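Q: Two folds, back to back.
A: First:
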Amino acid sequence: MKTNVKTTNIVLTPAIDQYLRFKIAKIKKYIDESSGEAMVDIEIGKTTEHHRRGQLFKAEINLVVPGQSLRRADIEDYDLYSAIVEARDEIVLQIKATHEKQTTLLRRGGRKIKEMIRGQRG
């Protein structure tokens, strides 16, 4: 999984970079990379330079997996670390929802085939 990190109005310190890569690595276990390598584009930064006025930090994650649709999470929060975690959780939720949808469609198709076979025997 390739990871690209972009910062806006903040400096990417080693501590932030390490935390970000640790949290994003957990996405990998939910991705099927059999069709190609996934790419994660991450943008973190301050949305404003004014303190105590609106949401201060944002974390945006774009996930591209070949053969699948683009997944995107954009979170604004008062804390950079919690924004990163919330964005990661939103991406994981989207991946799980897509997987469940595919499983449901597969089961529905199997059920229809079973009904057709039973209808021909009776």
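A: Second:
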Amino acid sequence: MTELKVDISELKSEGEDLIKELVEFLKEKTNAEIDRATDAVIVKSEESAVPKKHLKVLLKKFLHKTELKDYFRVIGGKEDSLVVKERKLAEE
């Protein structure tokens, strides 16, 4: 059983509905067990069924679908984790 953690602490500012939508999206696309913690979404799957790189691509697709791609980005965190970070927008 592998476990990948996605830090969504910065994404939570967009609202609870978005987080529920993200959990549903990941369940649908990965067929893995998705747990929701306070500041994280945990993807549990059988022996490397969901590679980290694939999860990163799915998160990017989700951000694109919800039109948040310009405001957030997905970066690798510590081992077995990804972080959805807010983009620093250049202010004029």
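Q: And?
A: The chain has one domain: 2-86.
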